[in-house]
Amino acid sequence: MCIAAACLLGCSRIDHPIVGKWKTTDDFSGSYSLDEIGWEIDFLPNGTFELLSDDGFRIQTRRTGGFGIEGEILGIEHPSSDHPTVYEVVFDESGNSLNLNGEEFSMNLVRASEPHKELHALPRIPESLEEATDLLISEMSEEDKLFVATRKEDDLIQFHTGWGMGIRNRFGLWSGNNKLLASCGSRWMHPDSASSVIIHSVWEQLRSEQDDSFLSKIEKIHALSDEVELEVSALLGQNFEELTRVINRSIHDLNPEKAEEGDVRFEIDMGEEAKGIQPDLDFLTEESISLSQFLNVVSFRYFARVDYEPNRIVLVARE
Predict the structure, then answer these.
(1) Are residue 236 and residue 149 in the same domain, yes or no?
(2) Which of 310, 226, 215 is nearest to 260 (CA)?
């Protein structure tokens, strides 16, 4: 079946009812991605197709390729694939709707007299660092903007797995978005590195929108969290409420002046029930650990985030 479909591809001109623009119906549910909005696909007479989809990432993704059809067998060839995808095509009596039935999934399509409104309302995939930065910021809440802006530059690596993975997949860094890669530094740049460049650009832009005096206070808090050394023996066996007291004593014991006369406070905002929880701190094998390192590890292990505010460091439960 695959061999037959492969032989179909490359026809110079196709005269078949499938030629034209189609879109998935509102109950589109046959995609590889359960969150995908739909497809809009245009089968052209020259044996090529143009596909608009979102791949479940809520961004316009456009692809082109070749196709061939013989009887009820359709072969679709993507440039990124070595083998065509084969479907059985079943038209309804009117010829205005059809079903594509493949080995992996099936979908219903109707002739697209009008564009797929939801797909066309989505943002286009960015092709430059500036476009990627602007798009990401436009989709962020004010709380998220402040959270990113108040990170230390060295801590941006923490975004590599979650946020960074979303950027790599959504912006096509793995699938040939060479314009964006080039804008990040080089079209041959590894997607991991490119996503780091994009995150850094977002961070810089968000910081540029903050007041200098505010950032100065945040940087002092960062410096303090790096300087405060916590004695591991004092942390072991403590619940979160007790840890708060231990950490605050360490902050003020360092130097009252650096703590701005006792105004710098560490707080835990993880709900009343969490106060009595004794976290597993067996990973602490050294005699001491800096406050910043401690918070980074604990926030990761307990699905929390660290908020830095003027005169306040807060460990907050993620929603």
Answers:
(1) no
(2) 310
- Residue-number span of the structural domain to which 179 is assigned: 129-210
Minimal CA–CA distance to 214: which of 312, 295, 140, 142? 312
Strands 61-70 and 106-111: unpaired
CB atoms within 10 A of CB 27: 8
More reliable by pLDDT, 260 or 121: 121
- Indicate the pTM of the whole model: 0.81
Residues 40, 95 within the same domain: yes
**Domain final residue pick, 210, 229, 253:** 210
The CATH code of the domain that includes 236 is: 3.55.50.30
In this structure, the answer to whether residues 19 and 96 fall within a common structural domain is: yes
Element (H, E) at 242: helix 240-254
Contacts 24+ apart (CB under 8 A), 274-283: 274/240, 274/317, 275/239, 275/240, 275/241, 276/239, 276/240, 276/241, 277/239, 277/240, 278/237, 278/238, 278/239, 278/240, 279/239, 279/240, 279/243, 281/232, 281/235, 281/236
Cα–Cα distance measured from residue 194 to residue 148, given in angstroms and rounded to the nearest whole number: 18
Both 218 and 277 in one domain: the answer is yes
pLDDT at 3 over 50: no
**Residues 218, 263 within the same domain:** yes
State pLDDT tens for residues 59-73.
998 889 999 999 899
